[in-house]
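Researcher: Sequence recovery benchmark, item below. Answer with residues only.
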């Protein structure tokens, strides 16, 4: 049985959607990031880095989205979310890392700029983060030329993570995802997947409750 500590719509949604894709039951435990619950002692015992997601699988606690996604793909190889071939796997890790270390980090500067600078520099940090997000969008849009998914013609792990981050662009002024046709179509393609829709609906329902 899996337990996922999550915040609705956050990067934890990628884990939730992959669990849905794999047909795995999951107990969802909300962590209210807005109220700072992740900085509390109880949560830090699970994840000293004070971030969602945290996946608990029996007695195993795992953090960091790429590690969690790969763990799930390895436990459920029949779904083919990670390819077997060495170079194709490497390409998946490349995009997982790009999503985490580049796009996520850029959004971090847009969403919590005060974490990176004193008050008088907050606007600059946010603007620099937004420029970096746009640079990522341009690169992803080019990388998607002739492909339905970021590593080729079938969905793999990085698509779930990239998709979630592409849903965050309400925090940006233009350009946004919709200004990049391939990227917009990609977001729509991944987002319309039943597993992704189920995960989103369940998180929205929990949020409303
Ligand atoms: N490197 C971490 C990043 C996790 C992360 O930043 N999660 C965000 C939600 S998308 C979070 O918990 N933010 C709370 C905060 O920044 O205070 C991972 O891949 O799991």
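Model:
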């Amino acid at each position: 049985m899996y337990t996922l500590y999550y915040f609705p719509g956050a990067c934890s949604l990628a884990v939730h959607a992959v669990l849905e894709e794999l047909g795995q039951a999951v107990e969802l435990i909300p962590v209210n990031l807005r109220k700072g619950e992740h900085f509390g002692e109880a949560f830090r015992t699970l994840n000293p880095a004070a971030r969602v997601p945290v996946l608990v699988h029996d007695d195993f606690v795992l953090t960091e989205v790429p590690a969690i996604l790969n763990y799930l793909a390895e436990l459920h190889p029949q779904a083919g979310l990670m390819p077997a071939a060495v170079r194709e796997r490497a390409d998946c890790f490349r995009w997982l890392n790009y999503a985490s270390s580049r796009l996520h980090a850029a959004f971090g500067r847009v969403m919590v700029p005060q974490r990176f600078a004193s008050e008088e520099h907050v606007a600059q940090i946010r603007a620099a983060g937004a420029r970096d997000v746009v640079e990522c969008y341009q690169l992803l849009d080019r990388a998607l030329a002739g492909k339905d998914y970021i590593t080729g013609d079938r969905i793999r792990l990085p698509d779930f993570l990239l998709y979630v981050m592409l849903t965050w662009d309400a925090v940006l002024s233009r350009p946004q995802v919709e200004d990049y046709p391939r990227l917009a179509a990609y977001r729509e393609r991944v987002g319309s997947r039943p597993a992704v829709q189920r995960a989103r609906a369940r998180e929205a329902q929990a949020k409303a409750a």
